[in-house]
Structure formats: C-alpha cells, structure tokens
C-alpha cells in the first residue's frame, strides 16, 4: 500500500473504539515493498503547554508528516478521564480477551503471508506443484479469515495448526535443498515453529522481520 493512516487516541481501553479520537493524518508516497519491509517511526512529543506533536517518518524515503493537537479542543475533561479509568478497570477481563483474540488472528495472518512469500521466493527449491499447493492453501486461509472475523482464540489457533500441518511438509523441502529458513523469520511465531504441531523440523529462526501488527479488529 502506498499510504498509511496514523490515528491518535487518548484513553485507557484496549480497543480504539472505546477511546477518544484526537486526530488523524496520512503518510503517503510509501514505495512498494513486501509485507513487513517498510519501516515507519512514529514520534509523540508533548510540550509543557500540553500541546502534542505526532510525527510519522518512512525510513527508506525520509518522507514525513505530522499533526499538532492542542489541549483546547476535543480533549477529555478530568471527569471523562476518571470515568474512562474506572471503565478500564471494570472491563479489564473483557479487554484482555479481546487483546488475546487480536494477537491470535495476527499470528495466523503473519504465518500465512510469510509462508506465501517464502514459497514465491523459493526458486527451484520447490516444484511448481508444491508452490501451487502453498498458494492455494494460503488463499483459502485468507478467505477463512475474511469469513470468520468473529472467531475466538481457540478457532484462530486451530486454524493455524491446520494450515501448518498442510504447509510445513512442503516448506521443509526447502531445508533439504539448503534453504536457511523463511525470509525474515516467521513473524509472530515466538521461538520459531519447532514447537507447533506440524512445525518445521528443528524450529525456525527468530522474528527478524515481522509483518505489521494490527492492534484491533472492529
């Protein structure tokens, strides 16, 4: 994607929909690159007058945008802040469950995209038939994600294991052909894939190139 939207919220809840939107801006002109490659630094600077400056910079091009948020408009009152703090405590268990659900979805999505990318870059280490099998399995898994946005943690984890069982035997052929590991590591897979059902023999390298993290799914 050639652009990314930066949204700034204040509040205590885990999901943005439960917090107060202060402002947003777009960082455009991002050059095309594989998933997880673009790096964007977001900086928050709050001065003594309560004025917040939020800037975003894309590292490869140096392109930068920012937004200035003053404390005289759209900010929460002390009463509203106290209310949101109390709500955060009251709904902590619910928020923790939602956070775990998002993490499980991200883990599955990262695995799919990393396997898909590895197969595309495998060259002659995988046959055309194996590459097609990987692509079909990944596409089916992505379609499952689109159709199951309300799935729970157990369902996401089960689907991850299901995809691994189908993809790992094929991808392990890359090791036999001298492949050192998946490009950029298996983003979102702590400790490599060795301990997962159907995982890669001996485990995968660390998380050198994780894909972008999505903090919530509304």
TrEMBL record:
Domain of life: Eukaryota
Keywords in alphabetical order: ATP-binding, Coiled coil, Nucleotide-binding, Stress response
InterPro entries listed in its UniProt record: HSP70_C_sf, HSP70_peptide-bd_sf, Hsp_70_fam
Nucleotide-binding among keywords: yes
Protein name: Heat shock protein 70
SUPFAM superfamilies for the chain: Heat shock protein 70kD (HSP70), C-terminal subdomain, Heat shock protein 70kD (HSP70), peptide-binding domain
Classification via Pfam families: HSP70 (PF00012)
């Amino acid at each position: 994607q050639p652009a990314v939207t930066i949204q700034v919220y204040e509040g205590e809840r885990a999901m943005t929909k439960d917090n107060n939107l202060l402002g947003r801006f777009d960082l455009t002109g991002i050059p095309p690159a594989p998933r997880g490659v673009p790096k964007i630094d977001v900086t928050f600077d709050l001065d003594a007058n309560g004025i917040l400056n939020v800037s975003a910079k894309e590292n490869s091009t140096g392109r930068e945008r920012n937004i200035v948020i003053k404390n005289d408009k759209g900010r929460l009152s002390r009463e509203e802040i106290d209310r949101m703090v109390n709500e955060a405590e009251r709904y902590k268990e619910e928020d923790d469950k939602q956070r775990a659900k998002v993490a499980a979805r991200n883990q599955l999505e990262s695995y799919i995209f990393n396997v898909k990318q590895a197969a595309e870059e495998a060259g002659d280490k995988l046959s055309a038939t194996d590459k097609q099998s990987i692509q079909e399995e990944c596409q089916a898994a992505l379609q499952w994600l689109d159709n199951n946005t309300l799935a729970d943690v157990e369902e996401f984890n089960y689907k991850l294991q299901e995809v691994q069982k189908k993809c790992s035997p094929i991808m392990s052929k890359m090791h036999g052909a001298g492949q050192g590991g998946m490009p950029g590591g298996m983003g979102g897979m702590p400790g490599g894939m060795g301990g997962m059902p159907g995982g890669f023999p001996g485990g995968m390298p660390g998380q050198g190139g994780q894909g972008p993290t999505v903090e919530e799914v509304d």
